[in-house]
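> @MW can you paste both from yesterday?
MW: sure, first one:
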Amino acid sequence: MSENERRTGDSRRSPLRVLIAADTFAPDVNGAARFAERLAAGLVERGHDVHVVAPASSRRHGTWTETHEGQRMTVHRLYSWRWFPHDWLRFALPWRSRKNAARILDAVKPDVVHSQSFLVVGRGMTIEAARRGIRVVATNHLMPENLLEFTLLPRFVQEPAVKTMWRDARKILSLASAVTTPTRRAADFLERSAGRNDVHAISCGIDASLYHPVFEKRTENRIIFVGRITGEKQIDVLIKAFSRLDESLDAKLEIIGGGDQKRNLEALAQQLGVADRVTFTGYVTDEQLKTAYSRATVLAMPSIAELQSIVTMEAMATALPVVAANAMALPHLVHDGENGYLFTPGDEHELAARLTDVLTLDEKQLEAMKRASLRMIRPHDIQNTLTTFESLYRGEAVIDPVTDVSDVSDDERRGR
C-alpha cells in the first residue's frame, strides 16, 4: 500500500460522519487534547466529515470551521466556565450537557460518536447517542484520581469521590459499543475499574516523520521535561534528583509547560541551589518544542499517571533516550536498558542514578539507545491508529495493533 493510500484510507468505502466529543481540545495543551486534534485531522485527511464538540476556549461560543493540523473541520464550541483552581481549564456546564448533546446530534446526525471522556461533554453525548441508536466508541484518557488536586475537596472525601466517579464511569462506558485506551496496561486497569472485559488497547499514535532525530556528537548534557506543571507529574522529584547529579556532568534541566506548581518548583530549585541550571520555558509552539527535543540529551518523565504519554512518544521519535517512572503505561514505551531506564516512582536517588547512567554513556552506547527509541516508536504510526478506529466506527471486529516491540519479529525490528 502506498503512503497516500495509507493516509487516505480505502477510497472504495463511503466516508463517515464522525462526531468527536471532547472535554478538552486545542488550544488546550495536554495528551487528550492533542490526541483528539490529531485524530480529527487524520480522519478529515482520509475524507471523512468530522465534527468536534468541545468547551469554548473563551467566552465566545457557537459553531464554526476551524483548522487543526492543516485540516479544516466543523467545531461546536459550548458555552464554558473557567475553573480557577486550574491554570487554564474551561468546562462546559454539566447541567446543559444532555440538552447540548441532543441539539447537536439532531442537527449533525452522525454515523458514530467518539467520546474522549466519561465526564461532561462525553457523558452527555454518550447518553443521548445511545438513546438515538447511534453507535458510540469511547476512549478513556482519564484517571479520576488525577482530578482531585483541582477540585479543592478535603482529603477525607477524596476517596469516596473517586469511587463515585468510577461508578459513574462504569455506567457511561456500558453504553458504548467499543471502549479503548492507549495501552494494554491502561486497558487492564480500566477493565478492573469500569467492569468491562473487552477494552481495546489502541495507541494514540504519532506521525514520526514530523520529528527530526539528531545523531551529531552532543555538546552538552541537557535533560528535558515536557508536560503540565502539576502535582501528579512529580516534577519536584526530578528537580531533587537533578540537584544530586555530579557537578562534573555540567548538566542543565529544561522544563517545558505551564501549570499551577511553577512558582513552587522555581522556589524548590532556588532552595536546592540549582536555579541557575534549571530553565522553566513555559508554553511553546510545536516548532519550538521540536527544537527543544533536538537539543536535549535525554527526556525525564517522572509522572505516575500516564495512560500513554504522547510527550514520551514525541521524544522517542526524535531519537531521545527516556528515563521514566516505572508506573502505569510508561514501561510500555521505555524498556529498561534498551531505549532508556525505569526508576521506582518518587525515588529521587534512583532517578539521579539513572540520569547519570545516560549522561555518562559513550557516544556509541548513546547512539544505540537513540536508535532503540526510533525502532520502538515505529509501531505507533498514527495511520495504524486511524485505520483501527475506522473499523471500530463501522462496527467491524478489530485486532489491536501490536505496539510493543517485544511482540515484533526480528525482521520487523530490522525494518524489513
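MW: second:
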Amino acid sequence: MFFWQGQNMQSITEWHNVDADSFLQQILPLQQPALLRQAVRHWPAVQAALTSDRALRDYIAALDNKAEVNTVLAHPDTGGRLSYNADLSGLNFERQKAPLTAVFDELQRIANQPDALHIAVQSARADACLPQFSRYNAMPLLNAAAVPRIWLGNRIVVPAHFDDAHNLACVVAGQRRFTLFAPEQVANLYPGPLDFTPAGAPVSLVDVMQPDLQRYPKFATALKQAQYAELEPGDVLYIPALWWHHVQSLQPLNMLVNYWWGGSIADDASPVSPFDSLLHSLLTLQKVTPAQRQHWQALFNHWVFHANGDPAAHLPAQVDGKRSLFSGKRKPQLLQWLAKQLQLM
C-alpha cells in the first residue's frame, strides 16, 4: 500500500516575517512545531542555491577548508531510507569520510543516474568544515552560541526519530518534507532497539511512506495526529525537543543547516541527558512485578515528574534559601555512590 504523505494529516502552523523577538516570545513558549516561511531567505548560501546548484557548489567550495566530514552511502535498493537491515542485525548503509566539496561534486556527477547511490553528509559541524559559514549566514533567531550543522545529500529518507534538544532546521537547497509526531505517540511508532540505532537516536521501524498496518496497526493512530510540512529554500522548521520527525529529501541535491540547543546533543548543554535515566531505569526495573511497577510509577510521578506539585515544598529551607530533596553540598557524594552502583550492574 502506498501512503500519500499529506493524507489525513494537519499542516504545521505557518508563521511569516518572524524575527528573534516573535520567535522567543510568541512561538517558542507554545512548544509546538512551527514553519517559519522564508526566515533565512536572505542568506548568501540560499541565494546561491536559488541561482543554481553550480552556484551553491562554488559558494560552498570557497568556504570549505577541506576537512573530512561524516558521509553515509546506501544502495539504490534501499530507496534512500537509512535504517536497519531486514533482521535488525545491522544497518543498510555504510559510513565514510570525505571533504564537503568532494561530496557535492559526486552528488552532481550522479544526479541524472537512475540507479545512483544514496549519499548524505549528516550533522557536520560548520565550524569544523566551513569555518566562515556563520559569519556570512548568521542565524537571526538564536544567539551566536548555537552551532550550525550541515546536512547535504540526494534523495534520502531519515526514519522518524527524536532528539533531546530543540531544533531549527533551515533548508538551503532542494526540498524537504517533514512528518512530525508528538512525544505521546511513542507507543504507536514502534521504536527499534535503544542500544543499537542508526545514528544515536531511537528510530521508528515503520516506513512512514508505505506503512505496513498489519504489522504495525497502532501506527494508524499516530497518523491521525501527525503534522507535516514541505520546506523550500529559505524556510525554517522549529521542532520542539522530543518530537519525533521523519524527513524526506526530495531533490537530486538537497542542503539543510540545523541548530540544536537545550539538550545533550547541543553545544550549550551538559553531555548527560534524561535519556540516560531512562536506560538506567530499564535496567533496574526489568524484573519488577506489574504490581511493583505501579508503585514505582507513583514514586516517579511524585518525585521526578512533580505530579503532586513541588515534592520538596514541605521541607525546611536550606542555607541558600531553597527547598530541595537533597543538599547540593552532598551532590559529589551522591554521584560517587551512583557510579559505584552502575559498576555493580
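> thanks! The chain is about 25% helix and 25% strand.
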